[in-house]
Amino acid sequence: MLKRYNFSLGLTWLVIFFVIPLPLLQTLSAGLPAIYSSQSQAIYLGAIAYSWMLTSIYLATKPHWLDRLIGLPNMYMIHGIISILAIGLAYLHKFGNPSDGWIRTTGDWAIYLFTGIMVYSMVFMAGWFTSRIPFLAKLKRMLDTVFKHELSVWLHRLNLIATLLVFIHVQLISYVTAIHPFMFVFYLYSGIVFISYVMSKVRSQLGDTRGTVTTNEVLAPNVQELTITPQKHYHLNLKMGDFVFISFPDLKGLKEYHPFSIVNPPSDDSQHIKLAIRGDGDFTKLLSEFKPGVAVKLSGGYGRYHSFLEDNDQDHHIVMIAGGIGVTPLLSIVEGSPERHISLFYSAHYDHDLIYLNQLKNWHQRENFDLHYQVGRYSEADVLNHQLHDLPNNAIFLISGPAPMIRYWKRVLKKNGIRNGQIYAEEFTW
């Protein structure tokens, strides 16, 4: 089941909260002069805050190895939470350890910059947060026309400037720089994150896969189907259910990476990647305006649907619950798993939102693929009465769609005895 996944996620939190700050705290504790003992707690909090901010920068580089362990949505959520906690600790550090001169100035500048970026990001970039608060979600939709995604990405990068200010802030504190073991760990952590960030940018510019958009067609109202052909000497590590980040380096407003699920299962025989993209934001609404032949950059794959399936026995019945455009990652799993017993419950707000319906109907001819589709959401009884009354211990559940729908079905399934380890979903809330 998902024991390995839950263990990995829990271990990640444990390492971030306790293991990473520990060397900084130990070296500080051992070397801090007794005269500063009354301020020691505030100093320790500052060290923890710095370690968490470095960690959040590392997570922002989207390390593939960690994505395959805990998933990118969880990485982004951790990134946001520890950033907020780090800023809170920074304020406690400021008020508990007064300073003056450039020490105070660099610290204050860093805190104010972090705080401003945090407030902005909580509205425009922390989808895991705004999707849970209707007011913020509505505010974001209203302001999206002004604060484009590319602007948000660049503003978010000001965190690097704020972190550099903290780095300088520490260099100005003589009694801290005199603690050589602490400074060794401090420089080591800073150097690792700096190199990781630079390497991620180098990979983005030089190492990411290049390709060409070979088709760009209207799949449904407000939905484009893109077929991308990577250049032959590039290689993408793709699995069924994965998503890739794409950007268009030659097109204004489309140069920052955005994630989209692959529709077709990856295989050695297939030399193309198919994406179905709904025009929800400033990036996606521009996709209908360009013609085939446009250069594209790709990074990936990312995602844990395939890992989830591998963690479970082959004889488990796969029950899929999909809403609207959220069906896209599940399509590649259905097509690429003809030997698995699969039931798909697919719903959308309107008929035209039920994409790839003819393809799904063709697959329905397979003996072990059970298709259900309708306009309007499924009720709890629609799914429970059809499947779960006789499959509670021999079924696994993949959910894909809007974040509220995913959370609803997780609650329903758990209420009806389905264990957390039998359910997997990836929320596209960034």
UniProtKB/TrEMBL annotation:
Pfam families the record matches: FAD_binding_8 (PF08022), NAD_binding_1 (PF00175)
Cofactor(s), by name: FAD
Record domain FAD-binding FR-type: where: 206-308
Gene3D superfamilies per record: Nucleotide-binding domain of ferredoxin-NADP reductase (FNR) module, Translation factors
Keywords: 2Fe-2S, FAD, Flavoprotein, Iron, Iron-sulfur, Membrane, Metal-binding, Oxidoreductase, Transmembrane, Transmembrane helix
CDD domains recorded: FNR_like
Residue intervals passing through the bilayer: 12-36, 42-60, 72-91, 111-130, 151-172, 178-200
Name by which UniProt lists this protein: Predicted ferric reductase
